[in-house]
Design a protein that fits this description.
This protein has four helices and no strands. It starts with a helix and ends in a 23-residue tail after the last helix. By secondary structure, it is mainly alpha-helical. The protein has one domain: ACP-like (Non-ribosomal Peptide Synthetase Peptidyl Carrier Protein, Chain A).
Length: about 100
């Protein structure tokens, strides 16, 4: 499991989608859909990655651009309270340790 969710998400997106466009870097808040980097199949790949890497369950109603359209949005979605175990020494720590399903 990743200790730095933003970096893990960035690496996955860059390895899986960025090479297709011949780009080197993607801004944290840049729209993946707007940049043409990800389509509906790519969203399914991304959801599968998030579920396996972070041990979360992405509900159908959560598969919306507000949650999955940029590295920043995806990171915020993954680390929201109750979604993922956030350790206290992480920059994403909310002051709590919460185990999945509890």
């Amino acid at each position: 499991m990743a200790n730095d969710p933003k970096q893990a998400i960035r690496e996955f997106i860059e390895m899986s989608f960025l090479f297709r466009e011949g780009r080197q870097r993607l801004a944290d808040d840049e729209s993946l859909l707007g940049a043409g980097l990800i389509d509906s199949t790519g969203i399914l790949e991304l959801v599968s990655y998030l579920e396996s890497e972070f041990g979360i369950v992405v509900q159908d109603e959560e598969i919306v651009p507000e949650n999955l359209d940029s590295i920043a949005a995806i990171t915020a979605y993954v680390v929201q309270d109750g979604k993922w175990v956030v350790w206290e020494d992480s920059e994403y720590a909310s002051g709590k340790r919460k185990l999945k399903g509890r």
